[in-house]
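Morning. Coffee machine broken again, so started the prediction first thing and wrote up yesterday's gels while waiting. Chain of 250 residues, entered below exactly as on the submission form.
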Amino acid sequence: MSPAPLVVAVVVPAHDEEERIGACIAGIRRAARHPALAEVAVHLVVVLDACTDATSTRARDALALPAQATERAIAATTVAISARNVGRARAFGASHIFATLGAVDPATVWLATTDADSVVPVDWLAHHLEVRHAGADGCAGTVVVDSWLEHPPSTQAAYERHYWPRGRQDFQHPHVHGTNLGVSMAAYLEVGGFPGVVTGEDHALWRALAAADRRLVSTPMAPVITSGRRHGRSPAGFAGFLARMDGVTA
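Came back before lunch.
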């Protein structure tokens, strides 16, 4: 058994996501009030990376909304950088939260990351904690595409065939997404955290954890809803992958 997390830290990098950041933050706030987190402090940082639109304003407005009667307060803030680099943005957010926590055992901190174009389910953080309680140092979740309207009719079937080649949702699947990823802060620090790369920082961290013989769990539970747009913010990221699938015949 691993130490029970006392803190859940959520990091969201955002570059020009004014249309989506509000829904992203609302989803995280819903997930934070799950009963499984009743004894856990939740910290959220939105890393505004080289934003040129209204993302900053809309993020702060979403964080400032009064809590509902059934909603617990969370420690939430925005920070701004000018890296235009998702790896650096995730790493900066993690460092910011860990510095804010002060003298705390990193083994009792669970770092969860998602993206500003995504909406986490209400049991997202609860499931991550369940995986941690079972002894995992890292958790790789799956995604569900919100809309296929920007793609040819054949793309969805081709994608589903690729994503679940055995026709079912499996544990120990091969997918790693920064928008649905969790890791013990102790394991994260041990392997050096997210590298400062513009694409693939999630896979690089996962490989480093595996190389360090950390216990990793891939789960199909609590998938994150993410954008099906063809033009994303990260070169060769998920949007680019979907665009390449457009030419695959189902």
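The two ends are 44 Å apart (CA to CA). Going to sketch it on the whiteboard this afternoon.
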